[in-house]
Amino acid sequence: MYKILIVDDEIKIREVIREYAEFNGYSVEEAADGMEAIGLCKLNDYDLIILDVMMPKLDGFSTCKELRKFKDTPVIMLSARGEEYDKLFGFELGIDDYVVKPFSPKELMARINAVLSRKTIIQPTTQDVMVFEGLTINIPARTVTVDGEKIELTPKEYDLLFYLAQNCNIALSRDKLLSDIWGYDFFGDDRTIDTHIKNLRNNLGPYRDFIVTLRGVGYKFEI
After folding, report:
1. Where in the chain is CATH 1.10.10.10?
2. pLDDT over 60 (residue 101)
3. Hey, which of 5, 21, 144, 164 would disulfide with 221, CB 3.0 to 4.6 Å?
4. What is the DSSP letter of 64?
């Protein structure tokens, strides 16, 4: 049984989500603010976190940033703010989906089901560790080093880099990257890919140019 943590300062919203989630067979725990959520996540493992943005003590963005220091748990963010900037900022922090309030509980369940059923498709490879000049990619260990220094990436940034590297010198469309990494049922759009590529390049520093933009198509890892 999947275990979900609902983090929202509005008790009525938590109650509605709990009712629908339990009806769909999920185990549910609740937190009223970001600080409480972080404490629970240090003690327990969850399969998914539903995280509100506007909360007392610690807002959703700050909470997500703290959680990403020690957990790779998928996050669906809830917010009354539907501006593109807020959505992109959330994806930069490593969230998996963004739902704008007011929302349909049935749609939220569909998004929860999509995130939980999504599995990253990584092409088989005989190389567990790949070295490109000073860039080392260790897939089993999920580590990346740049000139000997380990860099920290979000879960989706790791998946994206691994996929690009394993398909080295192959042109990959945005649609293919979305379907193979985020899943066919992902609710986002091409800007999600572009945002993650931008962040990934920034983290790769001197080796950012390994990721080549194919105008009108997508991207490829080129050596």
Report:
1. 129-221
2. yes
3. 164
4. H
